[in-house]
Design brief:
Oligomer: single chain
Helix content: over 70%
Order of helices and strands: HH
Strand content: under 5%
Length: about 60
Amino acid sequence: MLPNIGWSELLIILAIVLLLFGANRLPDLARSLGKSLKIFKHSLKGDDADEQENKRKG
């Protein structure tokens, strides 16, 4: 399993991400990640709704 991640490790990871992508691209990356998660959650909820509808019909 994953070990506990402390503040120092999070800061190091953030610094590496900042160096790799630059400060200008970080908002775009966060925005696209948020949209992707929203679509993923919506598709999961949509699948559940479709299954329930099929059970009612069948």
